[in-house]
Amino acid sequence: MHPKKSLFFAVLLLLVVVAVVFVGGRVWRNEKMNGTSTLRPVEIREYEGQKLSSIDDFRENSIKGPQFVDNESYRLIVTGLVNNEMEYTYGDVISNHQLFEKVVTLRCVEGWEVTILWEGVLVKDLIEEAGIDSGAKVVIFYAYDGYSTSLPLDYIINNDILMAYKMNGVVLPPERGFPFQLVADSKYGYKWIKWITEIELSDDVDYRGYWESRGFPNDADLP
Questions:
Q1: How far is CA 71 from each of CA 59, 93, 130, 170, rounded to the nearest angstrom?
Q2: What is the pLDDT of residue 28?
Q3: How many other CB atoms are found less than 10 A from the CB of residue 8?
Q4: 58 pLDDT exceeds 50?
Q5: Distance (Å, rounded) from C-alpha 7 to C-alpha 5?
Q6: Do residues 70 and 160 both lie within one domain?
Q7: Given a cut of 60, is residue 68 above it in pLDDT?
Q8: Are residues 27 and 75 in the same domain?
Q9: E strands of 24-75, at which residues?
Q10: Taking the CB of residue 120, how many other CB atoms lie within 10 A of it?
Q11: What is the residue range of 179's domain?
């Protein structure tokens, strides 16, 4: 082959290799960036002048570890002593009901506490939508991990008890109870059930949940 042609093809081949490396590098960097571009939402740490705890201040003490619930297949059931059993998707709960927020401190029997801005729906709105039977006296909550607890119906209605889907302005992460956690004002943390899947209205005033059946006081009142 003529030397000039050899040089031409060598230069051409070199240019092709450089182009492939350059383009490939750009694609690799973009893929890498796309793979790590999701940032954790920034939580609120102060609300109306009040300092808030961090989501990271909680201690993991659930009975089976963090639960990972798929919001697409998730269903919340309101059942028991109601006029009409209700079934909600995750979107139904947060999009079709009035949302409320309030700062409440969770106190654990282990001795730690966190003060959080909670946002969610009123439990009484959900159970009233189902129609409360006159015989109902207790509201029993069931969780995805098999946990359960109960509270008097009057307490739920008279204290505007929230079922939260956000904390400090951030959607509940799985370890904090996504999709919903109960905000049980003035009660110890074992009443603050996470990963709620069912709300049952009952006349069984002797019902005892997971920890209550193991000796914890059923009222769980803070001192």
A1: 24, 11, 22, 16
A2: 38
A3: 12
A4: yes
A5: 5
A6: yes
A7: yes
A8: no
A9: 46-47, 50-51
A10: 24
A11: 46-214
CA distances from 136 to 110, 147, 202 (A): 32, 21, 5
Q: Which two three-digit tokens encode residue 119?
A: 């946002």
What are 127's two structure tokens? 């159970």
Residues 91 and 180 in one domain: yes
Q: Is the pLDDT of residue 22 over 60?
A: no
Q: Name the residue with tokens 């031409």.
A: 8
> 94 with 165: CB under 8 angstroms?
yes
Tell me how far apart the alpha carbons of residues 171 and 99 are, in angstroms, rounded to a whole number: 13
Lowest mean pLDDT among 41-50, 64-73, 84-93: 41-50
Verify that 113 and 208 share a domain, yes or no.
Answer: yes
The rounded mean pLDDT for the chain is 88
Whose structure tokens read 């998730």? Answer: 74
Assign 206 to helix, strand or coil: coil
Start-to-end Cα distance in the chain: 96
Give the pLDDT of residue 20.
40
Same domain, 26 and 78: no
Q: Which of 94, 78, 76 is nearest to 86 (CA)?
A: 78
Residue showing tokens 């401190």: 105
Angstrom CA distances, 20 to 23, 25, 31, 35, 154, stand at 5, 8, 16, 22, 71
